[in-house]
Amino acid sequence: MNTKIKTGLFGFGTVGQGVYKIIKEANLPFEIKKICVRDTQKSREVEASLLTFDPQEILEDEEIELIVEVISDSDSAWNIVAQALQKGKAVVTANKKMVAENLEGLLRLQEQYHNPKFRFEAAVAAAIPILNLLDDYFAHEPLKSVRGILNGSSNFILSKMYAEAQPYEEALKEARQKGFAEADPTLDVSGQDARNKLSLIALLAFGKIIPPHEIPVQGIDTVSAKEIGEAKDKNQKIKQIAEIMLDENQNLNLSVTPQLISANDPLFSVDEEYNAVLLEGQFSGTQKLYGKGAGEFPTGTAVVADMLAIAAGKYYRYEKLKPELVAG
Ligand SMILES: NC(=O)c1ccc[n+]([C@@H]2O[C@H](COP(=O)([O-])OP(=O)(O)OC[C@H]3O[C@@H](n4cnc5c(N)ncnc54)[C@H](OP(=O)(O)O)[C@@H]3O)[C@@H](O)[C@H]2O)c1
Q: What is the distance in A from the centroid of ligand 1 to the CA of 274?
């Protein structure tokens, strides 16, 4: 590729800066033409001429072909992404809340505007390429279950409470300092963030649109230091497990809950900000995917992979969703 794709970046926090640095350092074929942020007073390590506080400056720029949306406000994100798709721009987002809460609307927009250029790999498990794998590699594999640790901050907090007997508040503070936590960390510790991710997995693994509010959830904020100590005494751990199981009647059962797991569970050794996903396929058996589920560069890497995929004309296939759409 000789010419660089003119790109508009929304958000310059943990993920936005990660994306910006990776593109520069790896000399990738993207030119970040403008960066839209909110706070006019913040000092930033980027030329002031690149910044804007007006989303329309990017959205109405016909030269900008690709939008990277990594802001922390999901309502504004939906407005940005919906406008961008309507204008025929390609969109990469990391915003699981926005995607999960607007799945149907996003699919409809793509259909209506004949714009399939939309990817959201970074929204689930950051550096683990789970969505790409589900949409492409496992497109024709009937899956029986997906079970995993999908929230880096919750896992980090539980790991610190377990290994170092750190108090909950202190572990949460450290997770925030390290950039693992959401701008509103109640999303992490209440299990809502993992629930949003499960909704995206349900779409690509099973072809089902399941709004997050329909998924039963319990947060790690209900887990006490005493319970963690008791688990440790029995060589067990408490982990926030997100799971989708297909039962014998072909019904999907989804949940996000803190669970007591034993040392022979493949998720037992998954600690700190790491995530893992166990996929059980009808033909392939069980696969375990493991990697960093949060942070500047792991998340930035997933965003950049989507940008490169779009540049190469690779869009989600939604293979498992198609029969439902045709029938509907
Ligand atoms: N952090 C992670 O490890 C991680 C992992 C996976 C996915 N994500 C997702 O990635 C997105 C960004 O997360 P983050 O951790 O980078 O958040 P962050 O560090 O809090 O940064 C958020 C950025 O969004 C900007 N922003 C917020 N509202 C805006 C608005 N209405 N218009 C323009 N800019 C706005 C902020 O502007 P100011 O700089 O002016 O405040 C800031 O630059 C979120 O959707 C999150 O769920 C994060």
A: 20
